[in-house]
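Deliverable D2.4 — example input (structure tokens):
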């Protein structure tokens, strides 16, 4: 592992890889959310109804849940360099498709396929973990996640301006197509300028492809249980597209999807069995074991952190507009303060995790998250607007710092499985978003915020079962020798 100092203004070695990786992630989020700030223009151009617009929003996140799991597997198998480059290049195609769409069907297919680019996040998690030591990993992953995640806010501010510069009814098409060009060009830049590991280091790959490896009988069944919510979220999305929701699907089609998801889960179970059946024949050596419980806790925490962030970003402009009688433009500007916190909060959460320990940091941030959403639940028209904005920003700090702290732990569980663990944890963030937005469709804003606060409490309780990463991860090189990878933070190293 390289011993160069952590210097943000250095653009060589590990810092070059970090900068190029967060830019790649930034671009994926620009492309993923390139439609959001121009929905009114898109709807007018294509003649979309309000229901069809909502459907596009649903479709945009639908594929991301399985995509993060799949991309995580591919990253562990083939390396982040080639997978990130291919994802950026291939996802430019549906981006161009959306820019050229003439009707709702074409736009819907393109947005559904673009959900795949939302999986780009998990690739960089593995890349950064290969280049940074454990005592810097939280900070590095936080910068990667926080600065990259800002791509959605950047799209909101820049793309409408670009559309206006092009002018005419098709201005939005040129703006969206431009993001596709950016994605395609950067795929080449990324491929030519990074490597999977520092020179002389080994890139450890999973023994099997197709399912996450576990190291005990109990963890085998635990993994199967933790997969259920991901399929349930996809079923929930299908329900929202059925006649009970926006009526994009018929009842027959929805039932077909439900049956398909059950069959897909059973197929998934068979893959998990094929990869892990050996644990029922002979125990895994203690040195090579890891506890899936660690993964499960992180899944629950990311459900509450990133899940709530995606949901709140989607509804916060409307919340401010209705509560304080603001214009849509003013409400959007006020609500953007929540997303802006990503630039500082996520790196801050990672840094705190490095300095003070993984578990203590997560406990404090999760508690703060719950209190923050309780405060948001009390916001009403009697509050001064500035105080409501401060409450939203304070809540956002704990949410996004928590995200940074979660992914400070992910690479410290089992190195060769980092992509898959990151993929599953990332998918749980999307599961959380689907769940929270569904809840919002049935309750008022105050109850919505209290539901998030309650799930954060569940996360806090789950955290009590998590162990502080310490010691070393054992990985086997191609020649059969064992490498011991240090996972101690600055706090545990003292």
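Example output (designed residues):
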């Amino acid at each position: 592992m390289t011993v160069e100092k952590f210097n943000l203004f250095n653009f060589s070695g590990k810092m070059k890889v970090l900068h190029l990786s967060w830019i790649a992630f930034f671009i994926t989020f620009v492309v993923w959310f390139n439609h959001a700030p121009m929905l009114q223009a898109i709807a007018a151009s294509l003649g979309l109804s309000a229901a069809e617009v909502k459907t596009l929003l649903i479709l945009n996140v639908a594929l991301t849940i399985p995509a993060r799991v799949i991309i995580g597997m591919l990253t562990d198998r083939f390396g982040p360099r080639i997978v990130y480059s291919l994802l950026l290049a291939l996802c430019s195609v549906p981006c161009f498709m959306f820019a050229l769409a003439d009707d709702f069907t074409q736009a819907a297919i393109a947005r559904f396929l673009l959900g795949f680019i939302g999986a780009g996040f998990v690739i960089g998690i593995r890349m950064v973990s290969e280049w940074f030591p454990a005592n810097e990993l939280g900070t590095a992953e936080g910068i990667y996640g926080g600065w990259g995640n800002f791509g959605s806010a950047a799209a909101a501010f820049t793309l409408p301006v670009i559309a206006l510069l092009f002018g005419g009814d098709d201005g939005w098409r040129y703006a969206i197509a431009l993001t596709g060009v950016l994605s395609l060009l950067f795929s080449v830049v990324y491929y030519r300028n990074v490597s999977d590991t520092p020179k002389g280091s080994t890139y450890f790959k999973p023994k099997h492809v197709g399912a996450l490896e576990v190291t005990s009988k109990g963890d085998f069944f635990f993994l199967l249980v933790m997969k259920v919510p991901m399929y349930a979220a996809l079923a929930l999305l299908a329900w929202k597209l059925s006649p009970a929701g926006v009526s994009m699907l018929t009842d027959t089609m929805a039932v077909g999807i439900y049956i398909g998801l059950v069959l897909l889960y059973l197929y998934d179970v068979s893959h998990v069995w094929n990869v892990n059946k050996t644990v029922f024949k002979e125990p895994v050596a203690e040195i090579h074991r890891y506890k899936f419980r660690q993964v499960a806790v992180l899944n629950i925490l990311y459900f509450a952190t990133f899940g709530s962030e995606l949901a709140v970003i989607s509804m916060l402009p409307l919340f401010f507009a209705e509560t304080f009688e603001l214009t849509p433009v003013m409400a959007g500007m006020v609500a953007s303060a929540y997303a802006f916190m990503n630039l500082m909060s996520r790196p801050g959460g990672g840094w705190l995790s490095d300095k003070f320990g993984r578990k203590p940091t997560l406990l404090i941030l999760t508690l703060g998250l719950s209190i923050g959403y309780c405060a948001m639940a009390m916001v009403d028209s009697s509050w001064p607007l500035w105080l409501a904005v401060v409450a939203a920003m304070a809540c956002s700090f704990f949410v996004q710092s928590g995200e940074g702290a979660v992914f400070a732990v992910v690479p410290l569980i089992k190195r060769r499985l980092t992509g898959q663990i990151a993929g599953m944890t990332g998918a749980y963030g999307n599961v959380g978003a689907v769940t929270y937005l569904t809840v919002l469709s049935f309750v008022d804003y105050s109850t919505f915020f209290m539901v998030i606060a309650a799930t954060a409490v569940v996360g806090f309780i789950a955290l009590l079962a998590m162990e502080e990463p310490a010691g070393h991860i054992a990985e086997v090189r191609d020649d059969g020798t064992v490498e011991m990878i240090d996972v101690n933070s600055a706090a545990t190293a003292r």
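The two ends are 20 Å apart (CA to CA).
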